[in-house]
Specification:
It is a single chain. By secondary structure, this protein is an alpha+beta fold. Strands 1-2-3-5-4 form a five-stranded antiparallel β-sheet, covered by helices on one side. The protein has helices spanning about 5-10, 60-75, 90, and strands at about 20, 25-30, 35-45, 80-85, 100-105. The longest helix is centred in the middle third of the chain and has 18 residues, at about 60-75. It binds guanosine-5'-monophosphate.
Length: about 110
């Protein structure tokens, strides 16, 4: 847990461009954006990957999606559309082991993803 970069953003040890916060969730701009809007939405507790999610975390994961909805509306991308992605472990490209929902918007996205 001590190597959890995103806990350091929650505690303000590492600065971030925060766009949304409530009791359970923090959201901030990705340092290496892949779209005009690229926000990471994280729970304020340490959960490494989706594989580590417990039954009692289900509501918290729902709150990540509800935050995505709020941010998309607030940032003006809700009507055109946006993508939310959560990578799990190496094959999916997860590099930070504190679960996070990517919210990407402001451009057209291809499917299937690379
Ligand atoms: P993953 O590849 O784990 O799904 O996504 C991790 C994301 O975290 C990447 O998009 C990466 O750019 C972002 N990231 C890594 N370190 C930092 C940081 O210190 N600050 C911010 N704002 N984003 C970070």
């Amino acid at each position: 847990m001590s190597d959890d970069l995103f806990l350091k953003i929650i505690s303000r040890e590492i600065p971030a461009d925060i766009v949304f916060e409530n009791d359970d969730v923090l959201a901030f701009r990705d340092v290496n954006p892949q779209a005009p809007l690229h926000v990471l939405i994280i729970p304020k507790i340490h959960i490494r990957t989706i594989n580590d999610m417990q039954q009692q975390d289900a509501e918290l994961f729902g709150k990540l999606f509800f935050a995505a909805r709020e941010i998309a509306l607030e940032q003006g991308i809700a009507k055109d559309g946006y993508r939310v992605v959560m990578n799990c472990n190496a094959a999916a490209g997860q590099t930070v082991f504190h679960v996070h929902l990517h919210l990407l918007g402001g451009r057209k996205f291809d499917w299937p993803p690379g």
